């Protein structure tokens, strides 16, 4: 019974994807309008054609680099804030309004404002980092709250340094969960980065290519870029989820 359920669990996502593509094919064939909705065949052809263009690789890896830089900065800031909030209730009360403001700030407004005085290639990094920060902070803070405080108190009683307490008591139980969070965070970061690049007009970026294809009414190429971004995000999240699963088993 468990084996059957496991097989169904693996098969269902592929069935869902198949249904999505089937509906896409039916609607595209019914409309017969390549500008509104190109066929699956045309989109897949344009997707493979992208991998033959040097411009695509420059844009793709530039976007990935911006995504990585933005996420690393955002994650580091979120962890530091979460750690000090965990250690001090006063610090938490002081930080909460800032997190609330960042979470509530309209993304489009932030991009347009930064574009006035920040380079178009840098603005998306800042915007994406700010948008992801509250989510990372909330998750990391909740993870820290699950750490056994009795162990931390024992470390303090026996004179264990704060650095060793952090490395040997606080961090180990968080590795699996944090790895999974990183996968979801980077995936979200990538999608936000593309949107921010489009709004900011960043050169050598997937967002720039999307904006250009939209202006040229090359919908098949636009959807090909969307497909590549979606696949990249899925691969990243799946890889981190797999690694997180292995780490959780190792922790046990």
* Sequence stretches where pLDDT stays below 50 over 5 or more residues: none
CATH class of the largest domain: Mainly Alpha
Instruction: Please report the number of helical segments.
Output: 11
- Beta-strand residue fraction: under 5%
* Rg calculated over all Cα atoms: 22 Å
Helix content: over 70%
Shape field: globular
Distance between the termini: 25 Å
Q: At CATH's second level, what is the architecture of the largest domain?
A: Orthogonal Bundle
Q: Could you name the CATH homologous superfamily of the largest domain?
A: MetI-like
β-strand number = 0
Sheet having the most strands: none
Assembly status: single chain
Structural class: mainly alpha
Write the H/E string, N to C.
HHHHHHHHHHH
Number of domains: 2
Q: Summarize model confidence as the mean pLDDT.
A: 83
Q: CATH topology of the largest domain, anyone?
A: MetI-like fold
Name its key features:
252 residues; mainly alpha; MetI-like fold
Question: Brief overview, please?
Answer:
The protein is an all-alpha fold.
């Amino acid at each position: 019974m468990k084996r059957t359920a496991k097989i169904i669990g693996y098969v269902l996502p592929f069935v869902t994807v198949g249904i999505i593509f089937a509906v896409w094919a039916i609607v595209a064939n019914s409309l017969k309008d390549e500008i509104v909705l190109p066929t699956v065949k045309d989109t897949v052809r344009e997707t493979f054609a992208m991998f033959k263009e040097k411009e695509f690789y420059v844009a793709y890896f530039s976007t990935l680099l911006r995504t990585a830089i933005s996420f690393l900065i955002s994650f580091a800031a979120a962890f530091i804030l979460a750690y000090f909030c965990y250690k001090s209730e006063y610090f938490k009360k002081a930080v909460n309004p800032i997190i609330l403001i960042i979470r509530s700030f309209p993304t489009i407004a932030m991009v347009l404002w930064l574009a006035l005085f920040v380079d178009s290639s840098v603005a998306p990094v800042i915007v994406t980092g700010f948008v992801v920060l509250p989510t990372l902070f909330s998750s990391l803070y909740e993870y820290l709250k699950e750490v056994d405080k009795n162990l931390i108190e024992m470390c303090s009683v026996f004179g264990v340094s704060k650095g060793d307490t952090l490395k040997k008591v606080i961090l180990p139980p968080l590795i699996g969960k944090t790895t999974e969070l990183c996968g979801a965070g980077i995936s979200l970061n990538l999608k936000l980065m593309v949107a921010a690049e489009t709004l900011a007009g960043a050169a050598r970026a997937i967002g720039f290519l999307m904006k250009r294809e939209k202006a040229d009414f090359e919908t098949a190429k636009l959807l090909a870029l969307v497909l590549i971004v979606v696949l990249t995000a899925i691969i990243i999240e799946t890889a981190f989820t797999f690694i997180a699963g292995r780490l959780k088993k190792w922790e046990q």
